[in-house]
Each structure stands twice: as structure tokens, then as C-alpha cells.
Amino acid sequence: MIRPLLARLQSGPLWQGQCLLCRQDCDEQPLLCRHCRTGLPVLTYPCPGCAFPLPVDDAHCGRCQKQPPAWQRMRVLAPFDAPFNRLIHNLKYHGKMLNGRLLGHLLAAELTPPWPEAILPVPLHWWRQLRRGFNQSHEIARGLQSCLDLHIDSRVLRRVRATAAQTHLSRAERRRNLTGAFAVANCRYRHVALLDDVITTGSTMTELTHLLHDNGVETVEVWAVCRTLER
Questions:
Q1: Cα gap 33→71, rounded to integer Å
Q2: CB 4 within 8 A of CB 134
Q3: DSSP letters along the chain, please?
Q4: What is the pLDDT of residue 160?
């Protein structure tokens, strides 16, 4: 619990005046210098259904045409490559809270209306959040909120069952691992955006989207900082 508190105290003008990647002074905007900002990887023409890059804009890939995803739209900032993988790793495992603000700012710049009624960060199990001291998705949501002034609601979704880490599981194993892992409470929204740091197979988002639809939500968007590009 002490580490995230210390990280929040380090968010003054000096820290925000240095680039989080190269540690040089930021000349135009806080957190990231102009040189590092122009070198960031981007997703070119992402599919609106799964965010895989396509050769043309505003088109669905063949997989999403044959089997549409549970959600209505997916928006992702970048592929899970450097420097985003390092920024996310240092946020999650080293408590670099300013990384969450930066990632939220960058994601906000790529989003377009219509806006959801609420952002729902993907929840951690209470024990994992207690050990980590924070939810990385909520920290990214805070950075996004500072740019778009959208409502964050961390009470709607709960992870009621601790699950094994998904990193090395197959798509089928991830699906089984998440069965019964989440619950929805007091959802009054009709349009929401699920927010996570990285999308891999989409199993977590599929499970949460089905739960939200079952509880009266009509439109579910999936927002994430990164997308792994392996099918």
C-alpha cells in the first residue's frame, strides 16, 4: 500500500516535466517529450470489432464478419510492443502510477463519440488488488477521465473468484478460467465502456460483455491501451 501512495506524491511539476521514457525535459506536453511521442507505434486501420490492423479504414475483418464479437465496438491505442509493454509492466508491477496517467492521456486522444455513460475498469480480485495496492485499469481510467471528463464506476463489476494468471493460457483455457469469475451489481447504464490495459484473446471482455448485456446494458464498448497481434 505504501508504494502507490509514494508514487502519487511524486506527481508534482518536476516529475510531470520529465519524459517518462527518456527522462529528458518535456518541451510541449507533460509526461512525454515530443521526440518519444512521435516515435510511438500505432494501429493502422484497426478493425472496429477486434482492433486487428487492416489494409483499409472502417472495415470489419473476415473473422468479425463471420462471428461478430459480443461487444459493439473495440477501440485500442497501439500494438503491445515497445514502449507500451514497458510502460504497462512498470505500472502493474513497479507501481509507476504516472504511467497510468500517460496511457490514459494517449488513449483519450484516439477515442471518438458517442460517449458512454460510464467507464467500467476491469476489476481485480480483492486479494490481488490488496497485494498490488491498486487496479492498473482504474489508474488508466483516471488519466483518460482527466482528458474527457467521463464518469468512472468501479462498483458495477466485481471479480468474485480468484483466477489463475492468464498470460500462458490458451483461448479455451482462458474461457474456462473465467467462468463464474465476475458479477454485476446495480447496473443502471445503457451504454458503457469496459477498460483494460491489454487485450489478448478477448476472453475477459467477452465474459464481462455477456454479463452486462444480461443485466440490461444495450451498448458495450471495449477500450484498451494495447492489443496483442497474434491470432
A1: 35
A2: yes
A3: -HHHHHHHHT-SHHHHTB-TTT-PBPSSSSSS-HHHHHT----SSB-TTT--B-SSSS---HHHHHS--SSSEEEEEEES-TTHHHHHHHHHHH--HHHHHHHHHHHHTT--SSPPSEEEEPPPBHHHHHHHSS-HHHHHHHHHHHHH---B--SSEEE-S-----TT--HHHHHHHHTT-EEE-S---SEEEEEEEEESSSHHHHHHHHHHHHTT--EEEEEEEEE----
A4: 84
∠ CA 205-208-210, nearest 5°, is 105
| Grid cell locating 177 | 478460467
Q: How many residues does the chain have?
A: 231
Q: Distance of CA 78 to CAs 27, 112, 149, Å?
A: 23, 16, 22
Q: How far is CA 20 from CA 53, 70, 89, 135, 173, in A?
A: 27, 36, 13, 20, 36
Contact 111, 88 (CB under 8 A): no
Q: Per-10-residue mean pLDDT for the chain, 231 residues long?
A: 43 61 85 91 92 88 94 96 96 94 95 96 91 95 95 94 61 63 90 96 93 96 93 50
pTM for the structure as a whole = 0.87
Beta carbons of 24 and 31 less than 8 angstroms apart:
no
Segment 10-47, tens digit of pLDDT: 444 434 578 999 988 887 788 999 999 999 998 889 99
